[in-house]
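Proteins fold reproducibly. Next comes a concrete instance:

***
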Amino acid sequence: MFEPDEELIGRVVRQLRRPVTVDAGLDARVMEQVRRLPPRRAGGAAHAAWGWLTRPRTVPFLPLGALAVAAVFVAVVLWRLDRPSRPASMSEFGFVVVAPRATTVSLVGDFNDWDGARTPMQRVRKDESVWTAVIPLTPGRYRYAFLVDGVRWLADPAAPAARDDEYGAPSSVVTVGGS
């Protein structure tokens, strides 16, 4: 075990107890330097940036450049129309489970075809045992469970248990309401 060096500790304590002398003119010299600084303009950097952004400018546009901008605009509009949008009634729903010795936890259920690879859960902190996942769900009734380390099925202790299915694995039920 560590044995303290009494002589060294005594020297450190004596050094720490010595009074500290501060130059009496230090405050005056520092304040004089502060007074010499140029005055700051009102608004500072944000005001200067806004002025630069709103300053009138002439931007030359060649016909080919205008055509390129129009093509990009049309492409973005068509891309947005082609994307499937989330239904207005869909909302984010959070799941939380405590799995103390788990290395991985997945959320499985009707909403992801019970596929453990599709919705991995994240730890709240690196060394914590609390796992979370947030997924979009439309209004309805869903059966789900947590798959711990890829082998152990765990029902949500904070939710109603689902009736036993043909597989015998524990699962829970959640009902997501619509507006």
